[in-house]
Known about the structure:
The protein is mostly beta strands and 242 residues long. The protein has two domains: 3-79 and 220-237, no CATH class; 81-202, no CATH class. It has helices spanning 34-48, 57-64, 231-234; strands at 3-9, 19-25, 53-54, 78-86, 96-99, 106-110, 121-124, 132-135, 144-147, 155-157, 165-169, 176-180, 188-192, 197-203, 209-212, 223-225. It starts with a strand and ends in an 8-residue tail after the last helix.
Amino acid sequence: MKTAIFPQQVAPHHGRTERVGVFRKFNIADRLPLIDALERVRRFNLEHGTSATIITPKAADIVLSEPALGFSFAPSPLLTNSIIAYEAPEQRLGKEIVYADKEHPRVILPTGRYAGASGIALVAISLTPTDFRLDVRREDGINDLWLDICDDRLMAVENFPAQNGWYVPDAKTGVPAGDRRVDSDAARDLWRIPGPIIGPVFRDIDERTVLVMHDLFYRAGVVIDIPRNDFEKVKHLNDSFP
C-alpha cells in the first residue's frame, strides 16, 4: 500500500519547533486502527531512517490549536500514541482490565501496582507494536490481545471524571481530569463511556474534544511527529503528491 507523507511545520512552542506530517493512503479510507498505525510508522522509519512517532495527546493539543496548519482536512478523530483503560465509575480495579466484544480479540491490560484503586484511569504513552501480544490459548477459539506494558510506563490519571464534560487535562497524560471547569480556556471536552474500555486517546478535529470512548480497533486519522533532525530526510516526499 503506497503511503505519502505531507510534512508541516508547527509554530514554536515553549522554545522549540515541532514538525508533523499526515499519513495518507491511496485506494482505501484515510483511517487506521492504532495497532496498524504503529506498524505503519515502524516500517516508515525503517525505510527512511527516521524516528517518527504518532503524536502524543499533548502534541495533538499543540497541532490542533494552530489554525494556520489547516489540519481540518485530516480524518477525524485523530489517533494519538497513547492508550487509556478504565472501569465503570466507582468500581475498583482488579488485577486486569478486560474489554471484550463479539467481533475482535479480547483485550487485556494488567493493572500492576494499581490493582485495588478506584476513581482512576490508566494511561500508557509512546506505544510500539511490541507492546501488544496475541494469545490464542483460549479454548473457545477467541484470541486474547495482551498489552505487555510494565508498571513504570503505566500512569494513573487521578480523579478521572465519571461523566462527560469540561475538565483541565492532566499534566502528564493530556487526559481531562479533576473537577468540571467550563470557565477555563485550558479545559477540554471529555467524552467517555461507562466502561470498561481499553483504547486510544483520540483527539477530535474541533480542537477541544478528547475522546476516550472507542476501542483499539476503531479506525482514525494518523498524524506523526517528525523529529527536527529527520525532517530533511522526508521533506522530498511532499514534492511527489498534490
